[in-house]
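Customer ticket, subject: "Can you confirm the structure for Small ribosomal subunit protein uS15c?"

Message body: Hello, I'm evaluating your service for our small team and ran a test protein. I'd like someone to confirm that this is what the system normally returns, since I don't have a reference to compare against.
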Amino acid sequence: MVKNSFISVISQEEKYENRGSVEFQIVSFTNRIRRLTSHLQLHKKDYLSQRGLRKILGKRQRLLSYLSKKNRICYKELINQLDIRESKTR
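Agent reply: Thanks for trying us out. I re-ran your input and got the following:
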């Protein structure tokens, strides 16, 4: 998978520099979401993992909305790099 290798490259570059940055946390959550999604395709009745996935999705959504308010350019770049959809604005 090309996406996972790209995420691991980003993770390796910023491994010791900015673990607390919003961008790094979003990349980390995206990696965990993709891993859990592939797990749930095999184990459809794993309800605890489904709950965990929903919690991670909510955390990532809140971080993405925060980033879009603070730095719109960085938000757009990150969305394009991770190949995820842009959040709906209210």
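A couple of notes from the result: The domain at 21-80 is CATH 1.10.287.10 (Helix Hairpins). The longest helix spans residues 47-70. Feel free to reply with more questions.
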